[in-house]
Each structure stands twice: as structure tokens, then as C-alpha cells.
Amino acid sequence: MPRLLRLCLLLCGLCLPHLALAAPAPVPLELSAEQQAWLAAHRQLRVGVVLQAPYAQLDRRVQKLSGANIELMEALAAALRVELEWHSYADQTALEAARRAGHIDLAPGLSQTPAGLRLWLFSAPYMRVPQLLVGERSSAGSIDLEQLGGADPLAVRSPSAVADFLRGTYSNLLLQPVNSERQALQHLRAGQAKYAVIDAAQLGRLAREAEFAGLAVVGDVGLPQLLRVASRRDWPQLSGLLDSALRALPAKDLERLRERWLDTPAPRADESPALWRSLSLLLAGLLLLAALLLVWQRRQQQALERRLRDARQAIELREAAEEALRLTQFSIDQSTVGILWVNWDSHVRYANRAAEAMLGYAAGAVVERPLRDFEPNLHMDRWLNLWRRARGSDGEPLHFETECRRADGGALPVDVALSFLRFRQAEYLVVYLTDVTERRRALAALRESEARLQGIAANVPGLVFRLERPYAGAAVDFAFISEGSESLVGYSAASLLAPDRGIRSLVHPDDRASYHRTQDQALLSDSDWRWQGRILTRDGAQRWADIKASARHLDGGLVVWDGIVWDISENKRIELELADSRAQLRELSAHLESVREEEKARIAREVHDELGQVLTVLKLETSMCELAYAALDPGLQERLNSMKRLIAQLFQLVRDVATALRPPILDAGIGSAIEWQARRFEARTQIPCLVEVPEQPLVLADAKAIGLFRILQEALTNVLRHAQAHTVELRLAVEGAALQLSVSDDGQGFDPAAVGASSFGLVGMRERVLMLGGSLVIASRPGEGTQLTIRVPLG
Fold this sequence. Notes:
Layout: H1 2-19, H2 33-41, E1 44-50, E2 57-59, E3 64-66, H3 68-80, E4 83-89, H4 92-100, E5 106-110, E6 120-122, E7 127-129, E8 131-136, E9 153-157, H5 161-169, E10 174-178, H6 181-189, E11 195-199, H7 200-206, E12 215-220, E13 225-232, H8 236-248, H9 251-261, H10 274-334, E14 338-342, E15 348-351, H11 353-359, H12 380-391, E16 398-405, E17 411-423, E18 426-435, H13 437-459, E19 463-469, E20 477-481, H14 485-489, H15 493-496, H16 512-525, E21 529-536, E22 542-553, E23 559-567, H17 569-629, H18 634-661, H19 670-685, E24 689-692, H20 702-723, E25 728-735, E26 738-745, H21 752-755, H22 760-771, E27 775-780, E28 786-793
Parallel strand pairs: 1-4, 9-10, 9-11, 24-25
Antiparallel strand pairs: 2-3, 5-13, 6-13, 7-13, 8-11, 8-12, 14-15, 14-18, 16-17, 17-18, 19-20, 19-23, 21-22, 22-23, 25-26, 26-28, 27-28
Helix pairs in contact: 17-18, 17-22, 19-20, 20-22
């Protein structure tokens, strides 16, 4: 026996070193000052991995990543003393999209491709994964791809690099494209393909399944997959650090990592089973010898164990019976429910401590007393009737409430339960007494609370209601509607509580869609309910109602909505009148603005035409005077030159006034007007203005074109006065049936909520937009610039 144990320990010692494979240990790096400074500025790196076992896989129970690439990156992070932020993706396309969006910094386990070089900087390869040729285990020897013909279909995942390699290198192969490595092996097992091409990592994972147990490696394709760590192209420092960290990792650690995650358990077709057969026979002999020794030892112990077991069982049964008896007696004595054992003659044979305390008697004073001492109405005939009912109830206890008389003469309200009991040769009724004094008080308090609630709800100037849903997914129904419904809509609460009624039956047909939408949203999200709309009274009158209900979660999944329906008809009338008044004021303001713009245009034309003609005549007369008299007097020539300069200034002044009143560029379209205003703004403020307008001229009403131009002028004035910006961007675009104008700057920004109505410029712009039937959105935060977005309909 000791020799067998030593042999088993020796075999275990030989196997354990192959099981204890750890991840690569961190190796300290010697970095330059520049590299250390870069790492200090980038302490956290975002790593993207494609979820594909055994390289990277997610344990959803603990939400933790594992795999060969995960352990490698953790070793590199420990060597570089940085933290990793993991991002997992379903495939290579999603990983590359995340890199283009700037969500990740590096990714392990990629192969260097021409397309990938435009996105990544690749490190030196850290792992070589061969592409293997797999066939049935009955295949003899290794297979040469050049010897295969059209009769030997070859299953390979396509599209893939290995499929492109096989098509370009071996023209004699009959390739059978599949979607995955598992599907390739399934085609091989089903006889649809003669061989399958799969990489060593996927083969090591799939070969452990019983479905693929009969497969073997019959050759090597000759195109190994070289795994590299890819990093951002704009961070060449990171690529150099990764190369240094990879070179510092010991080769034995990388080999252990490969053996742990990428081992290929599938045997080769040319391996001989003789060694395994010999080991199996040796192990079987050892197991047989151990079994014989155990049988012999077992026979020696059986006699003694049998005697000890019989004695132990007898002792345990006796102790268990005694313990059960003690526990039963203790439980009955410590119970808060009064328990009486009563004989057929209504005399008590046993009473626990709770029953004695309830009835106010000393210990042992209840025994041998008749029940009539505690319940005077329990005469013998009634007791015998209860005896017969309890005996014939098949174990179902009888329940009723009564009042017992205590030892001091007081009354004790109790709930009584009777149960028949046959013990040995005697029969008893077990009487259970439960004190219901507190329950009666609580019931009285509940009734008082309900009466108070009914009184309050009846005097509330509105309709109080409660909606209930017993559990998630169940239908909701009105559990309570106050009598205020009579004064609000003319219906009684009882009529509205009918299954086909409720508040929804009062809603105006035009407002039922909004009513059901808000109610369904509140019910689905278990949130508060708010609705305003019209309801119809019993006599057909229309009223405006405001519904407010608060959601509460109770025990057992019950959700209730307590709310009230207010009559807001008068407030709504005032609100509608105020809205009409505001609309009229806005129409009047729009009319005045239109008249003012027309007047500005008329004045601009008159100034340009009339004053322009006068100035032209004056300039002509000055030129004629110069020709006629300038030679006679040298001082006159200087005077005439001064007059010509003044006339030129007046010409420019007239043009500026006419342009300010109504820029002629508006006749060329709103896009040209925006570009012209931007150039003037640049010339006046030296602030660069980036303009983007449609190439095709926009057909826009004159009023809308002028309105948008005035809004743009006010926005640029605000930028000049307050923004302290370095750049301004103007964008005009057609989006659907609307025209959108955006004005953005990189200035100091502001808080729109804090400014409010105190800025007349913003108020004027908002009113102009409303007059055009559009909307104005101001997006700004202190220190982050400002963006104004104006949308007006094209129609």
C-alpha cells in the first residue's frame, strides 16, 4: 500500500508542472527621459479587442475578459506602468470603425496588411499561429496540397487571407467557401468536404468538443498568421514603447502563453497509438492492484463498522426522539398563540403559558376548568356541536371570533381555531386563541381613515381618483373616484367606476389620442402622469381639465397612481386669449417691420437716385469750372480739387447710406448677401469669416431674405461687441422643407439662461424668427463659444 501511494504521488508530480501555466511576468524597462515623459502624460491607454476565443473572450457572469491577447496586454501594461481601458467588439470591422472614430489607442492580435497600414503602426510579431490542414483520423500520413485534385473538396473560411493565398498559389484545389472554422469542420464531418483549413488556435478550441473528436492534423498550409500589436499612427512613441516591451518579455513566457491558450490537442494522423496503449495497460494494472488492496482492507473493517453503526443508530434514534420531544414542548410553551387541549366534556387538560397569560391566570390554574368559565355562552350543547363539526372536518380547523372573560372580569377579543387531535387512546380538541385587540383597533383606525379620506375628497374642488395595477403587465383600473365627479362632469362616482367608463369616457374625441399617449407612457414607465385637454360633461358642455397623478410602488409589485382632475376652463380661456393677443401683436410687429423695410428701400432708392444725380451734376459743373477758369488763378485750382474730393466723399456717403438702408446685394439672393456681409465684417474687424452657402441661388421671399439678413447683421454685431472671437463660421443650407442659417464663433461664450430677456439683441432676433414662422436655438457655455441656429420654412 505505501508503494502504491508513492507511485501515485510521483505521477501527480510529473503532471502538475504542465498544468501550472501563468501569464507572462512584467519585466522592468530602461526608458529614455523622453519616453518616460510621454508615458507620464498618457497613464491610461484604451485597448480594443475582437471577442474571439481563445484570443479574447468575455465571462458574462463576472464581466471579465480573458484570453491570450488579454494576458499579453496586461504584461505589457505592467512593464510600461500604465492602466488599460478595455473595449470589446464583435468583429474586425467594428474595431476599425472605433479606431477611425478615435475611441481606442491600440489593439492586440492583428495581422499586418496594406489596408491596415493606413490606420495602424504595427509592432514586431509576438506569436506565430500556423494554418493547419485537418482531415479524418483514418487518413494515412501527411498530405501535400499540390497532389490534391478536383475530387478532394477543401473547406476554408472565406473571405480570408488564407483563402486568397490558396487561390493564388494552388490552382488545382477545389475550394469550398464557408462562413466560419466551425462550419468548415462540420462540412468535413458530414462528408461535404475531404479536408478543412483552420488555424491552430481555433482547432485547439474546437477539437475538445465531442462532435470533432475523430479529426486529425494532416498537413500545414504554409501561411502562418503573425500576430502583432497595432497602435495609433499619430502616436509613434507608443509603437516604439510597445516594441521595447515585447523585446523585454522572456521567450519562455511567450511560449508558456502560447501553450496555455493556443495548444492544439488534435493528434496528427501519423502518430502511433502504441505508446498510449502501453500507458493505458500500465495504468489499468495499477488501478487493479489498488482495487484489490482496497477490497481486502474493506473486508477487514466491515465487521467492526457494522457493529459500531448499529449501536450508533440506536443511540441517535433515542437522542433524536428525546430532542424532538423537548423542542416540541419548548415551542408550545414559548408560542405567542394560546393553546388549550380540551376533552369531550369541555374541561381543559393542558394550557401553554401564552393561554394562561391571555386569560390572566397563574401557571397551572387553567387546567381542569371548563371552557364555560372563559366563554359563558359556550354551554354543553354548543360545545358538543363544535366537537362533532371539528371531528368530521377532515383536519380542516374551524374559525370564529368571540370574547373571552379574563380572571379579573375583563373582556378579551380573540380569534378561535378548533382542530381535532387523537393522541394514543384519547381524543381532544386543540383550541388556538389569538388576541385580536390590536387588529380591531387597526380596523377601526382604517375605517376612520377611509371616512376622513372620503370627506376630504368630497370637498376638494375637483375629481380625486386612484389607478391600480396589481402586478407588472396587468391591466390597470380605477380603484377609487371621489364624489366630486358629480359637480365636475355631472356623473356619479359609481357610474364612472363601471368597467367600460372611467375618466377616458369623458375625454373629447379630438383629445383622446393625446390622453391615451400620456397615460400609456406613464403606465409603461411607472412614472407620474400629466395631461391637459378637453372633457365633456353630462349635458354635453365642454370643459378644460388638468390631470396630475403621482406613481407609487407598493409591496408585491402593486403600482398605484393617486391623482386629481382640476377644472381649468377659466385659466385656459385666459391662456388662449393671451396667446391670440400675442399672435396679433406679433402680426402687427411683422407688418410694421415690413413697412419699415419698404420705407428703408424707398429712402435708399431716393437717396441713391436723387442725391446721386445732384452730386453728378455738381461734379460736372466743377469740372467745367476747372476747364474754364483754373488756368487764370492758381488758388482756384486748389479750391476746385478740394471740392472734387468733397464730392467724392459725398458719393461714398450716399452709397453707404443706401447700402445700410437696403443692401442692393439682396437682389442677387440671400447666399450672395451673406457672403458680402461676411467680407465687410472681415474688413471692418480683421476677424476671419468662413462662409458656406449653396452653389445654386435660393428662391426666397423678399421678406424672409431681409429678415434673415437683419438677423445675421445683429448676430455679427453681438460677436463684435461681446464674443472676443478669433474665427466666425457662417453656414446656410437647405434641410428638407426648411432653410437653416448657423452662426458659430470660438469666443468666450455665455449662459443663455442667465441672460434671458435682458438682452434686447437676442429678444429682437427671436421675435424676427417667430415672425418668419421659424425657430431660433442658442447653444453656448462660458469659455466654449456660441452657436446660433435659425430655421425658417421655405414655403
